[in-house]
UniProtKB/TrEMBL annotation:
The keyword Signal applies. This is C-type lysozyme inhibitor domain-containing protein. Keywords: Signal. Residues 1-19 form the signal peptide. It comes from the Bacteria.
Length: 116
């Protein structure tokens, strides 16, 4: 009986620890202000506007439980400036479950660097 209670508690505790989404720490090191950053998983998206040079922002992208995500996928970032737009795919999720809870995104003048 104790084992059943322990296993039940263990499963409930760890299942409650999982947040249903991913946090992106976006750092602008490009030397210019960015008009907006769009991050998407193909099912939901978030937008952060007016990201100043040298500033950091924490962005949370939820994985909606109402939408049954089947299969694998990646994230997409789109960066909009007055003079240029950039788009790149990165990361990975499987069946609606993110493999990483957090990504650090460094936006530089001509490069985007991703760290899990």
């Amino acid at each position: 009986m104790r084992k059943i209670v322990f296993v039940s508690f263990f499963l409930i505790f760890f299942s409650s620890c999982f947040k249903n989404g991913v946090t992106f720490e976006v750092k602008n090191q490009s030397g210019i202000q960015i008009d907006s950053v769009h991050i998407s998983n193909g099912y939901s998206s978030v937008v952060e506007s007016n990201i100043g040079n040298g500033k950091s922002y924490s962005i949370f992208l939820p994985f909606d439980k109402k939408i049954k995500i089947r299969g694998d996928g990646s994230y997409q970032i789109r960066i909009y400036n007055k003079n240029s737009n950039r788009e790149m795919n990165f990361g990975y999720f499987s069946n609606g479950i993110p493999l990483a809870e957090e990504y650090e995104i460094l936006i530089e003048k001509d490069t985007i660097i991703f760290h899990e």
